[in-house]
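FORM 7B: Structural annotation worksheet

SECTION A. Query
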Amino acid sequence: MRLPTFVILGAQKSGTTSLYHYLGQHPEVFMPEVKEPSFLALYGCDKEFRGPQDPAAANPYRTLEAYASLFAGSEGFKAVGEASTLNLYYPTTIDNIQAFIPTARLVCILRNPVERAYSHYNFVRMLGREPLDSFEAAFDGEDARIREDWGPIWHYKSRGYYYSQLNPYFSAFPREQIKVYLLEDLKTDQEGTLRDLFRFVGVEASFVPPVLESKNVSSVPRFAWLNRAVYIPGLVRRMARAFVPKTRRERLRQSAIDWLQKHNARAPDRLTPFMRKRLQAVYREDIEKLQTLLNRDLSGWLRD
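SECTION B. Predicted structure
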């Protein structure tokens, strides 16, 4: 049984999908076809989440055997990895990493938490799972949703407290086992960031991925019903199960998602100055502590 030699922890909507695809193109790296298995976050968790079609409730990788099956065929690769953004958010991930892959390299990529929260909200709207058309209303209703056991896909505010989530990792693992990037690193020096990443996970650093565009960019749907038909279980999904072989369903679904993102998407409206200032105030203390933890200047996250 082979398990990962490195794990991308998160954060959600911060560039994890791009890192997953860049690493997957490296000839010495094995990345499973499934992104977000979330085993390390959800193992031992019997909690069933509420909320409209929460994907965490149906996660099929809650056993070690199911998780290990994702890495079948990884023999011969120098590095084996996976990417699950719940890892950073769930503190139980640390215990599970220590239990199953204690020497794994841990990779994290962070984005301005103000921008991340708004991008997260628009992403869930794109999925057809956000019932509110107002970011402010969804933001204000988050605490009530959490009390009602809505799943982490709706935790727009809470998933941006990076210091609170990362600090326990630095207490549990040697600092040299953890690498934290900013999304700005990937944007301003993509080549240098990827060389450093490849070196960190233990593969040839000079490799340049042939496909380097950003992945999983947030948008909002022009026609919400089209996105709901693809993303939310219903008639279309039932028909696919009836007429499409299981081995082709995920590929067909991904093709439909790619089409939607190209033809049924528009850029979201800009975050209002009022909400930007509110979120900056919410995250200020956490950002200031994170600066010290990472020894990086994050003051730009607190400017308009």
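SECTION C. Observations
The chain has one domain: 6-219+267-302. Residues 273-294 form the longest helix (22 residues).

SECTION D. Sign-off
Analyst initials: ____
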